[in-house]
Design brief:
mainly beta, Immunoglobulin-like, four-stranded antiparallel beta sheet, MtrB, single chain
Length: about 70
Amino acid sequence: MESTNDYVVIKAKDQGVQVIGLTRGQDTKFHHTEKLDKNEVMICQFTDHTSAIKIRGKAIVMTKYGTIETDQ
């Protein structure tokens, strides 16, 4: 599995933050879901299978492009 070397760091600000990986291809589908507890950190990487990451809940998202805080 080849990756683009783009990483995303997600830090949960509340309990139960959902991180959802979405597939590449003609049909975009959920392929992986994780639930983070408050202050847990997850490091994600885009791959041949993962084209997008969806985040539900209050979190800090850090990328090479900057830091984003979700609103809820």
